[in-house]
Amino acid sequence: MKIWMKSVLWVLSFLWVTSAWAVSQAEDIATTIMLRGHACGGKQVTQIQQKEDGKGNQTIRATCPNGVRYQIDVSAAGQVKVHPL
Questions:
Q1: Which segments of the chain have a pLDDT < 70?
Q2: What is the pTM for the complete model shown?
């Protein structure tokens, strides 16, 4: 019985810690823009528009806090390209 309780407490503590590290989509997109060498001017973007075609390619358009708009193209294979609009 004690081992079972320790296991449950361990799992609950793990879930609590991982939720504290959760990143929003707006933060994730801003980080992607900055890691690709573009200035975003903040930790998260606004006005996110996301589209996916039938082949699994995604197009994301977002506006940074500094007013610059970017388009992020993510291929079905996972290749990421960022360019200003």
A1: 1-22
A2: 0.71
